[in-house]
Amino acid sequence: MALICSLHQPDLAARYFDRIIEVRQGTLIELSAKHPAGGSREGVASLGHAS
């Protein structure tokens, strides 16, 4: 199942979804997935924050 939405709470998204694609101003910024062993998010801390 897939869900496409604008969500400005990356921690909430990481809790319920195994994959996050960040798009900023029409450009793909980051594609992150859960680590197989730990279940933590790669790069989730930077999602939603200006660089």
Helix content: 10-25%
Helix run count? 1
Beta-strand segment tally: 2
Q: What string gives the helices and strands in order?
A: HEE
Instruction: State the low-pLDDT regions, or none.
Output: 36-42
The radius of gyration computed from the alpha-carbon positions, rounded to a whole number of angstroms, is 11 Å
Quickly give the structural class: alpha+beta
User: How far from one another are the termini?
Assistant: 31 Å
Compute the average pLDDT.
73
As a percent range, the share of strand residues is 25-35%
Count of all domains: 1
Shape: globular
Q: Strands of the largest sheet, in order across it?
A: 1-2
Largest sheet descriptor: 2 strands, antiparallel
How do the strands and helices of this protein lay out in sequence?
Blueprint: H1 10-16, E1 19-24, E2 27-33
Can you walk through the features of this model?
- Helices cover 14% and strands 25% of the residues.
- The protein has a two-stranded antiparallel ribbon with strand order 1-2.
- The chain is an alpha+beta fold.
- It has one domain.
Key words describing this protein structure:
alpha+beta; single chain
